[in-house]
Sequence to fold (230 residues):
Amino acid sequence: MDYVFAPPPQASIAVANSDARLPVRRVFCVGRNYAAHAREMGMDDRDPPFFFTKPADAVVDAGSTIPYPPETNDLNHEVELVAIIGTGGRNIAVEDSLNHVWGYAIGNDFTRRDIQIALRNVGRPWDWGKAFDNSALIGPAHPVSVVGHPSEGFIRLTVNGEVRQDGNLNEMIWNVPEVISIISHSMELKPGDLIMSGTPAGVGPVKPGDVLVHSVVGLGEVTATIGARL
Ligand code: MN
Fold:
């Protein structure tokens, strides 16, 4: 292929205990998928799921320093379980969903909350609050052959050693198999699609210099440091 300028490098995430990297195609995110978080955002907790996306190249490796993004004074953390699609498909049945999963990772759906809320309140798209550079911290990918399908147990975030989020994967309103099935009835899933499955209660602000430690049952720990303002 003859391009008019060099194409961008393939976005990718690290793979645990491997030098190989996992290519990222799209990043889907589930909104308000834990009841207590939906309530803290002032919303009903029984609504059907809804989705937004981040660009593939918003992904940042575990251990990175995340630059404090522009145009916000309320950068928020959201620790999440990330499901990694390894086999694509459309109209996937809930009972078949887990056969499409390559593995799992820990993620942080960083959010410019002030921008998100301002856009929400006037009925405009959220993208500027969610889909900015470096907005998707994704820890190393763990294959299903090693970690199985985590569906119950802790999902936790500390900031400078203080527990901010401490939920349980079994508190998801729509579980991972349901989410995969629902997305696949609207979009054809493909290998390398990542699904950030929503955050438990306790979201809040971070500031330059903060050290974040994310942990999910069976997936170890992922750290990140908030860097200086861009
Ligand atoms: Mn989120």
In short: The pocket of manganese (II) ion is lined by residues 29, 78, 80, 109, 196, 198-199 (CB under 6 Å). The first strand starts at residue 12 and ends at 14. Residues 12-229 form a domain with the Fumarylacetoacetate hydrolase; domain 2 fold (CATH 3.90.850.10). The chain has a mean pLDDT of 96.
